[in-house]
Fold these 3 entries.
Entry 1:
Amino acid sequence: MRLGFHFHVPAYQDGNKIRMPGYLGTFIDGLAPKFEHIVCFLHSPLSYDKQFIDYKIKSKNVILINIGSKRRVYIRELFWPFYLKHYYFNKKLIDVLLIRGPSPLLPYFSLLTKEIPKVFMLVADQLKGLEDLQQPKFRRKMIILWSNWNRILQDKCIRNEHIIVNSKKLLDDNINISKSIKTIKTTTLYKKDLYYREDTCKNEVVHLLYTGRMDRGKGLFEMVDALHLLVNDGINANLNFVGWADDGDPIIAELKKYANDLKIIDKVIFHGFQPLGKKLFSFYKQSDVYVIASKRSEGFPRTIWEAMAHSLPVVATRVGSISHYLSNENNALLVEPNSPHDLFQAIKIIIKDKKIRRRITKNSFSLVSKQTIENRSEELANHIKEIID
């Protein structure tokens, strides 16, 4: 079977290699052995995006079709026939199309691919986080209007179609509009990436870690507040941010000023974007506690899987699919969102209580060991083939 694939994330040809962002590249490489070939209908990157394209596809049976540069959403919406013509000229190469969403072009791929069996894979909600947008008023209003319009079109396209989701929240949101719906978790971890250690917090300084996009909805200021409380409580700790901000968002400068005002600027360290693999994973291996303080409902962040796979006890907020997958206190410590004091107390328990820390480390590692690319790719490929057969 020959698989076609579309998502809004960019990629490009680098000599005889295809480059993609790590989380997407591992997804494609995991699926590639299960199909005759995979034809990826992806955008080419703009200059800002190239810094995040950190992964070289290893599989020889992956074909990249450049459908046009990843320009602003309204341009892709207005000129969708230009983008879709690249699919039209290559549609004979595929037997089934996997469309990952949300994506500005999802409705138009759906419209022009009626002759090809389709499976929709939803990995996020385009309406989530709109309240945190740092944009001029008019542009923010236009983004919100587009997001709602795209959601309406998406719901219309996927109605009575086969859907795959990667979180309990997305399952609940879409269960009543699909022909069939299945939850398959997404991951960036191969079996070889799993790194077990019995315990953390063994050194004089406790290293707290957050990885991922520097998104205001992730509770980054609350993490700094929790660190401030830890320091005032006599705990020698620092907070490492490994991630990137959206283009034009001054959140990193704001966090630095906030930490400076609290007189803990020397304890808040910004490492910027790190490519998936050894560089990123080295931060997990050198840290003691993983912290994510999401302020709103969301799917299940892949960074939690990555932390657990490197034997990091996790402190997170009780929102969305985080509370669904980690409701057992043996897997993580969960607190209510928007509460730096509760976050501080949970981190302090992890640091001070060796028994709880080691129990969480052991149980969460056992849980994540089942969420590898090998397992999830097999499940996804088999499900697609069952649908088509």
Note: The chain has a mean pLDDT of 93.
Entry 2:
Amino acid sequence: MSDDDGGDPRNIVDDARVKFTVGWFNLPRGLAFDHHRGLLFVTDSRNLRVKVYTCDDDGSFAFMFADRGSQPSKFMNPDSIAIDHEHGRILIAYTNQNRIQSWSLSDQSFLSCIGQYGSGDLEFNGPRGIAIDNHHRRVIIVDTNNHRLVFLSSIDLSFLFEVGNEGSQPGEFSFPHGIAIDHERHRIIVIDTNNNRVQVLSLADGSFLFQFGSQGNQPGQFDKPLGVCVDNQGRIILTDHNHRLQAFTHQGHHISSFHCGWERPLAVAFDEHRGLIAFSAGEQVHVIGANQWLADTFIWHVNQHRHAPSSIKQAISAMTMIRSLVDESAMSMIPNELLFEIFSFL
């Protein structure tokens, strides 16, 4: 394994691996991909809004939504964001208001709000991360200042159970922030920020499995890590205040680092259908081609073809037509799955 600095860390916008950059924002704390529609959602926290960009081109602005105010149905410093495709909604954590809102994914209309200040069943103290567990039909909230994870029913957002308390022992947390789910391995990945480590828990009940990381600036060490995502190979990608992203195997072994310029990265997200990694740093959000940093990231699956960008669909249709006319050629031996992967890089 090697540490890849990607060139001069001051010139992130000049890095050839950056597909596009969007901004400007005032504290973009939350990122989420709508894989199905090819959209990137960014919480523009101090501007009290969510801005949305397309991913199939150069990151053009699509739309934004905001309804500013302090009432339960209004926007006030949105923080983390997650897309719940199964229920057609957007979930947003409001750290300063200690609540979780849900909005319609189709038209961005307000649906519901839960939470208030405290440490009880449906109370929060500075909630940050949100993860969707479709396997168990649950939503997991990182309740940062209560040093715990809160498990809710994804059906009605009712309280189920909690895990964790303040401390530095396995299964304990000190101001955790980011959360992601490794669905294939049925694991929860939690950024235990003030303990400068990552904890890996069982998705079934939140029990401790293993941890990795320590304080420092060497590969595999952290300085107040915040955001995390998991790619489609199970690799764990997180933001590190040492001005970089770090990637690890699903076992917690360091793979590579991606330096993020002068600014410290806050949030990170992975688009499993397009092989993109987005991260926020300073007032901007950068989107890189994952394969240009981590090899073998982007692998098409049959059930993902319907979500392909229109340009790829058109190219595949043309290639399929050509193959039907030249059955004896080498082209006829190339499966559609490989054609999708080839055209995804063009």
Note: The mean pLDDT is 87.
Entry 3:
Amino acid sequence: MTIRLRHLAEVNPATPEFDWLPPDSLVPFLPLEAVWPGGMLDVSRRRPRSEVAVGYTRFREGDILIPKITPTFQADRTVIACGIEGGIGAGTTELHIVRVSNCADSHYVRYLLSSKPALDEGEASMIGVAGQKRVPDNFFRDLRVPVADLSQQRAIADYLDAETGRIDALIAKRRRMIELLDEREQAIRDIWVNDQFSRWDSAAFRRQLSHIEQGWSPQCEAVPAEQGEWGVLKTSAVSKGVFLPDENKRLPEYVEPDERWRVRDGDLLVTRGSGSADMVGRAAVACTEGRKLLLSDLIYRLVPYSSDTEYLAEILQSRRLRGLIRACIRMDSGQTLKVRVNDLRELPVPLTPSTEQTRALVELHLRLARTLRVREMLHYQLQLLAEHRRALITAAVNGEIEIPGLAA
């Protein structure tokens, strides 16, 4: 037997206590990137109440926060608001709020929302355009959930707290192992780059470059372009040596694409500007996967005379070069951090003969091969653990497994 969730909880209820706070008081604020389950929920941010009084989502301590937009909903980033200073907070509009009644346990309801049927049905109910689809609040009100009295709910929630806690600990350990692999990979690259500098004379980067191009900034839509449509790259498309073609904004049909800025496979791209210093000066070689992509004004295209673009990208990813780029970063009048063309031209790089660059890249790839294999294995294990966690939650809330302390 099932009932609709609206009989157990309110969806997006009013929070009148928020209006009782003084306008200049600081309240906890949750952007979407701060909403993660478990101990990863970041409640450290604060904003004046007057700044978030209009156009934001309000919540209380103990409310269930559900990201409504793709792909965060499918990733099951639903979390219970806890540790909220003052008990009242505000968050992004990309959150739904579920506030359970006295006849329900919030941990149990949170697990209901993380079960596979709820996630699958929620994804199927999404509305909007590709890349910006959202789960409507009516889906949660009408969601049918198993009937259980309060003691059963708490028994199931306690069991899942313990079991998913063990799984989450395994997931955390594997994520930490991936972080250590990242550090090892960076160290391997740094040693390799230092070896290149020791083997060959170095000179300003301009000796290697034919020219540097900067893209354009047309008015774009917030959604990514689909196959066959034109998209303008976001700075996040260039990420620590990896090119992410899906990170783009769709060019409206009424805007004529400028073919001068078309990104092609093999282009060496470097981020010119961002709101974060860590994002400035990142390098990657483009692999468009058949997409029609355009260079934005916050990304440079570096055109070498004859050097291998992958070789130059590896040099630019080293701590040696990243540190020099960071020292050159300046803030413009629009509060954007940028690196200038002339600063890039003056970066020191090894004058490695083109015939030696391929051999050097093969050497680097051989050094990295083992870490790449281990990384693939860890990501596969993370996938299996996530699937096991979801299957366990689904079986528990549907009464498919025996719960200790709960009569059959």
Note: Residues 159-199+352-408 form one domain.
